[in-house]
Amino acid sequence: MRRTSPAALVGIAIAGAVIGWLLQVGLTTGGAPSFIPPATLYSVLFILAFGLILLGRPVRRLVRGKARRPVDPFFAMRVLVLAKASSLTGALLVGVAAALAAYAVSRAGSTATPAFWPDVLTAIGALALLIAGLVVEWWCRIPPEDRADGPGRPDQIPEQR
Questions:
Q1: Dihedral angle over CA of 46, 49, 53, 55, nearest 10
Q2: For the chain, give me the number of helices (H) and strands (E)?
Q3: How far apart, in whole angstroms, are the C-alpha atoms of residue 56 and residue 135?
Q4: Is residue 43 a contact partner of residue 125, using CB atoms and an 8 Å limit?
Q5: What is the pLDDT of residues 30-87, one digit of tens each?
Q6: With contact defined as beta carbons under 8 Å apart, do 56 and 83 qualify?
Q7: Which segments cross the bilayer (predicted)?
């Protein structure tokens, strides 16, 4: 699995910003109140980021050679996939929340609007999820093998006659 590229994260964040801006414009143009993220959204984002770090720690210990117990390879792969999904989701939500905050400031002219701080907290929670995903993805990297003395290299396997 390839590491998450910064270009993909930026592209997803920009797409999220466009979606968030269009959501707010559509709601207010239709006469509905603008979307204000609930407190449960940004609190769950922080909890998910913390949980992802906790799930990645055993894999990190195994990769560094300090594990007390072996880690199931399927568990390690699931943690890696969760980390990648978290970084992509975090990038999308950072874009959406940033657009919501920018829209709130553009409409009110200041940060005094009741929608601004929940939007900022959502962006921070999404950024925490994005960073946790990238960190755990980095933790799940397998170090390169030492090729100088590895008996498994094809050129070092004796030919059988």
A1: 110
A2: 4, 0
A3: 9
A4: yes
A5: 998 888 999 999 999 999 999 999 999 999 998 888 878 888 889 999 999 999 999 9
A6: yes
A7: 7-27, 39-59, 79-104, 116-140
